[in-house]
Amino acid sequence: MKNRPRTCLGCREKYDKNLLLKVVRIISSDGVKEIKFSPDAKLQGRGAWVCKKKECIEKVKKNRTFERVLKANVTENIFEELSCII
């Protein structure tokens, strides 16, 4: 399979996935939606990508883009984890 570029939800630029941060929606067996940060980008599930720039993370948070794309509530903890990486 080709390694196709992913689009950052903040700046809408395309990057190789090793330059982006991945947030994943996982649905458990009882139907509960859970949002997790995938530091190694290996978690399975519906993914959303943002680049490692503070401006992009802030834009995604302000516009609630993760919630819209993943169709689930995103807690403040996710943004704290992303901010620690940059």
Describe the structure.
By secondary structure, this protein is an alpha+beta fold. It has a single domain (6-85), classed as 2-Layer Sandwich (Hypothetical Cytosolic Protein, Chain: A), CATH 3.30.1230. The protein has 3 helices and 5 strands; from the N terminus they run E-E-E-E-E-H-H-H. The strands form 2 sheets. The chain has a 3-stranded antiparallel β-sheet. Strands 1-2 form a two-stranded antiparallel ribbon. A hairpin with a 6-residue loop joins strand 1 and strand 2 (14-15). It is globular.
Distance between the termini: 29 Å
Report the radius of gyration as a whole number of Å: 12 Å
**Uncertain spans, ≥5 residues at pLDDT below 50?**
none
Shape from CA axes? Answer: globular
| Annotated CATH architecture | 2-Layer Sandwich
Would you tell me the structural class of the helices and strands? alpha+beta
At the fold tier of CATH, the topology name is: Hypothetical Cytosolic Protein, Chain: A
CATH homologous superfamily label: YlxR-like
Biggest β-sheet description = 3 strands, antiparallel
